[in-house]
Amino acid sequence: MKWGKLIISLAIPLAVGAVAGIATSSNVDTWYPQLNKPSFNPPNSVFGPVWTVLYILMGISLYLIWRMPVSFARNNALRLFFFQLALNFLWSFLFFEWHLIGWALTDIVLLLVSILFCIALFRRVQRIAAWLFVPYLLWVSFATALNFAIYRLN
Description:
Mean pLDDT: 97
Radius of gyration: 16 Å
Largest sheet: none
Order of helices and strands: HHHHHH
Helix content: over 70%
Shape: elongated
Number of strands: 0
Number of helices: 6
Oligomer: single chain
């Protein structure tokens, strides 16, 4: 195991999540409570722990891909990983910081599609890395439905 690569692989998504969390936290107690939300909206206390676990799984997945021999498929998998991570990062700002619920919905749909492509591409490079993205896919599917419902209700 290459500890440096593992630490960097974990640090990248966790850092992205921490910065996005700053944008989120400044509006969770002020703007977000004023929105009409669907009955399936979870309590705010659920989001932080779930995202932390997902960012850790993403980091492990990144490490598993990164440690593979250099190849066209591996490099594309890495590029797609960072693309989806950028969409993930952008969503928090669109939704919470800038209150652009419709644009956030567009972003999260693109994120969902990119996660599906990541899983497909990761599977060719390292199967466990693909499986580690499945909880992320499930959560973002739920988050997409939640974003859509909030968009419709507001």
